[in-house]
Task: inverse folding
């Protein structure tokens, strides 16, 4: 099992959070805590780059939904980038692919 590692950087459209490792029951609170500290302005886009994510369980999906809520509360947008195939499948089955902008490439 891999540990979770999170990095942040700024892009022209807003902050980018890169997720590496496992986003699961043990680590999802770490992502939620970091997202809650990200300052967003109306019209910005928060990007969660999942290209380095190796595993995501239901707690991880819940953390992604919490990130979406944080962005919407700030009147900002959110996108998921480089979504791994297994996570894409989960998002599609649950209908969450309809509420997240998805990109197959790293941002």
Result:
């Amino acid at each position: 099992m891999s540990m979770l590692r999170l990095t942040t950087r700024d892009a022209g459209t807003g902050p980018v959070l890169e997720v590496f490792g496992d986003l699961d029951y043990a680590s999802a609170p770490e992502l939620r805590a970091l997202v809650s500290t990200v300052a967003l302005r109306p019209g910005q886009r928060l990007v969660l780059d999942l290209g380095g994510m190796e595993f995501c369980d239901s707690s991880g999906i819940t953390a992604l939904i919490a990130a979406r809520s944080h962005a919407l509360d700030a009147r900002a947008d959110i996108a998921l980038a480089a979504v791994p195939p297994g996570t894409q499948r989960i998002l599609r089955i649950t209908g969450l692919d309809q509420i997240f902008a998805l990109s197959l490439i790293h941002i």
User: Anything to note?
Assistant: The mean pLDDT is 94. Strands lie at 5-11, 14-23, 45-56, 77-81, 101-103.
